[in-house]
Amino acid sequence: MKKVVLKYGELFSGPGGLAWAATHSQFRRGDTEYSFKHAWANDIDEDTCKTYRNNICPADPNSVICGDIRKIDLKKLSKIDILAFGFPCNDFSVVGEQRGFNGNYGPLYSYGVKILNLQRPRCFVAENVGGLRSANEGYAFKKILHDLESAGNGYTLTAHLYKFEDYGVPQKRHRVVIVGFDKSLGLNFEVPSPTHIGSYITSEQALTRPPISKDATNNEFTKQSSTVIERLKFIKPGENAWTANIPKKLRLNVKTARMSQIYKRLNPKEPAYTVTGSGGGGTHIYHWNEPRSLTNRERARLQTFPDNFIFVGSKESVRKQIGMAVPPVAASVIFSSILKIIAGTSYEPARSNQENVLQEVLRDRLQLALSI
Fold this sequence. Notes:
Shape: globular
Number of strands: 8
Number of helices: 11
CATH topology of the domain at 2-195 and 326-371: Rossmann fold
CATH class of the domain at 2-195 and 326-371: Alpha Beta
Structural class: alpha/beta
Strand content: 15-25%
CATH superfamily of the domain at 2-195 and 326-371: Vaccinia Virus protein VP39
Helix content: 25-40%
Distance between the termini: 49 Å
């Protein structure tokens, strides 16, 4: 059996959602097997790096570089064939101030561009929140696409707003994923056809089939105050603190912005709402039947991490890691498709009426070129 192994590098890696998907993706054509192999990764958070090392590359812990990307010598990174980077989304998320390039995190995508210029890998995968498209009145997205397309030898881009529930993730999580192939290869990525439209995996299915073992890691319960427990008893599945009929003494005294996920209980018959890295102020995600917040292991189930994927750190640190990760099940669809393209095999692409967000900005390419 001939093996084609693509070396995989990752910036802003998080705990390893993308990496787990990549390193567990394989494709065989004839007598040739195609796969990815971890080469190196970087993240700034120490607990996150420990989680990544333990689950992705336990035999090569030094390949995970823990530190600020702005202080790392990129020229010393080993050669890779594919780059992945879920660049920090804080300044592009619709939840927050949307500072875009004016924030602390917005400009960090440029380090992915620098790797593309230095190493010119065959392809890359970049992920960010759906709010990226509207940040800075749409300019940020156009600028990022322009820089990615122009990097290295030039890259052929396919950008798409994925609804991950359409691909078997038991959660309504919508993210922009940009896949680029080196133009010299003459390859083009097509958005894979959704697999679960009309047959979504529900939060109840995700958390109960099979049941989570009582001795599972990262499964500690959060102690709820008596007030929270009483409040949750009046909130029905799918309702939140604002839509439920709650007695006056248990209502929240909030007159400004009312976020819909505050004390929101899961609807067991639907995919969960978006798992985030936050947890205070009633944003833990709440069980549909029991008056409590979810455990981190339950949150990891909604993010499609296997139960043997162990997170390192305090309960708060683990909650953040899980919320910031890319669901491995969704990422696997993308990485498997990349392997098929490299192997010269076709697959069923999404229908033309699916939302390909790259088309939204191509019309404005001339205007963008003039403004840079």
